[in-house]
Amino acid sequence: MADKTPKESKAPFATRIDPTKEGLSKEQIHFIRQVELEQWKKKTQKLRTRNAVTGLAIGAIVLGIYGYTFYSVSQERIMDEIDEEAKRARMQGPKTGAN
Hints:
Elements: H1 26-92
């Protein structure tokens, strides 16, 4: 079977460095800060979009619940009106032994 562990590379790229310990020039430090700023901007834009979508989804759910509540309360009011009409009709109707 082949060895699945990756071989160590001796390439100097993509290695972490500590800028305070390394002897970097001002141009190199400036470049590092520019790259970090661009990465931060890219991540921020993705997060902003994701937060907006999440906020709109939560808002839609809240409005749906709010609308359904109003709809169900109006249905209850209609049922109350029907019950009161039936009660008035029974009171105004002829009196028999069954009433």
